[in-house]
């Protein structure tokens, strides 16, 4: 059984901790448990836990999912909380802040990043707009995305095929250079990104001319995605491996499609329920009626019970939006009744309403007399 971890407890921060507080706590914990510093048998495992906690809580998207659903939520959203890669976090700036880059002979933290290590591609976001009914019933939609794809000219190496001197002469392929400064406290050594190759470790003069050493070229690609029924405005879809390609054999990033739903002039939606309004005449409200109404599924007959009141609701069960992830369950359609009082009447209508008025007055008097008679007989 997998151990359930509290990432906030691992880093020793509160659940409302800021990003700066999380980063500060991570630095302290990482220094304490790094295997090169801590020789305890469980130091490596604790160090991995600290890294996993920091990777999640420092990312707004992952942190929101974790706060709501825990590690299971991360898995369901496409993240693998049990597959943490320390290479995804650049620790050089963190450990250089601990040790100051070294004193008295140049202490090295050992966390300089390998420029040739596999690097995951960036995730991308694409916003699309769909119609109201498309969101209700789902659709297949062709989208266009501009992303980085491996350069075919250089086989994604970033270097010319016939190049001989491929290693950066400034840094020797490390991607970083050391600079030493003498102070009253001794020799201070700092590590910075190589100014010649910008951290790639490759000779700029041998860069592939097609991709300029990046190993990837931006292209537009058409993708068909299946949007499920029941999605709402602001829903996100993850399309795996359709972000930017990775470097040095790293896997591709993902594409996150954010769905914007156009408002409907006929229907309002809350969750999986649909809401509309229906105007009734006074006779319809008093006597009742059967009226043809429009739903998202088509036209149907709504039965108006006699004596219905203004603002009262009629429920059409199962005439709402299909539930996300279900082929059988649907929401309801709620119709709010609006009884319309006529402002102008024809002569015949006025005559009938006056007769009705007189009749209602007489009925009111009869009710009072009946109540008095009942009181006398008690």
CATH class category of the largest domain = Mainly Beta
Shape: elongated
Main structural class: alpha+beta
Q: What is CATH's topology name of the largest domain?
A: HSP40/DNAj peptide-binding domain
Which sheet architecture does the biggest sheet show? Answer: 4 strands, mixed
First and last CA, distance:
78 Å
Please state the average pLDDT score. Answer: 83
The CATH fourth-level homologous superfamily of the largest domain? Urease metallochaperone UreE, N-terminal domain
Cα-atom radius of gyration = 35 Å
SS elements, strand count: 13
> Could you spell the SSE succession in H and E letters?
HHHHHEHEEEEEEEEHEEEEH
The domain tally reads 4
CATH architecture call of the largest domain: Sandwich
Strand order of the largest sheet: 8-9-13-12
The helix fraction, in percent, is 25-40%
Number of helices: 8
Q: Identify low-pLDDT runs.
A: 85-90, 92-111
């Amino acid at each position: 059984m997998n151990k359930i971890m509290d990432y906030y407890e691992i880093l020793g921060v509160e659940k409302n901790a800021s990003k700066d507080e999380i980063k500060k706590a991570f630095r302290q914990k990482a220094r304490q448990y790094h295997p090169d510093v801590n020789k305890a048998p469980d130091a490596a495992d604790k160090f991995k836990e600290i890294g996993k906690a920091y990777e999640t809580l420092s990312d707004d998207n992952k942190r929101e999912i974790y706060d709501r659903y825990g590690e299971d939520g991360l898995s369901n959203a496409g993240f693998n909380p049990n597959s943490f890669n320390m290479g995804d976090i650049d620790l050089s700036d963190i450990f250089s802040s601990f040790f100051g880059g070294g004193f008295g002979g140049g202490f090295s933290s050992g966390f300089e990043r390998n420029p040739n290590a596999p690097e995951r591609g960036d995730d991308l976001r694409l916003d699309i707009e769909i119609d109201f009914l498309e969101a209700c019933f789902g659709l297949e939609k062709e989208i266009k995305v501009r992303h980085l794809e491996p350069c075919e000219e250089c086989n994604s190496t970033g270097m010319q095929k016939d190049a001989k001197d491929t290693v950066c002469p400034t840094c020797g392929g490390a991607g970083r250079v050391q600079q030493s400064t003498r102070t009253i406290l001794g020799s201070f050594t700092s590590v910075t990104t190589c100014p010649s190759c910008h951290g790639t470790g490759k000779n700029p003069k041998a860069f592939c001319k097609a991709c300029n050493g990046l190993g990837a070229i931006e292209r537009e690609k058409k993708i068909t995605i299946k949007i499920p029924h029941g999605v709402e405005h602001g829903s996100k879809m993850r399309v795996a491996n359709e972000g930017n390609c990775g470097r040095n054999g790293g896997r591709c990033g993902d594409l996150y499609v954010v769905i914007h739903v156009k408002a409907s002039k006929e229907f309002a939606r809350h969750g999986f329920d649909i809401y509309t309004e229906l105007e009734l005449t006074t006779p319809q409200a008093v006597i009742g009626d059967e009226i043809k109404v429009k739903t998202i599924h088509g036209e149907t007959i709504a039965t108006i019970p006699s004596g219905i009141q203004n603002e009262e609701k009629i429920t059409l069960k199962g005439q709402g939006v299909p539930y996300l992830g279900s082929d059988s369950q649907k929401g309801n359609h709620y119709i709010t009744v609006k009884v319309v009082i006529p402002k102008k009447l024809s002569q015949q209508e006025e005559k009938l309403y006056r007769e009705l008025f007189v009749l209602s007055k007489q009925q009111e008097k009869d009710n009072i007399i009946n109540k008095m008679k009942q009181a006398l007989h008690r």
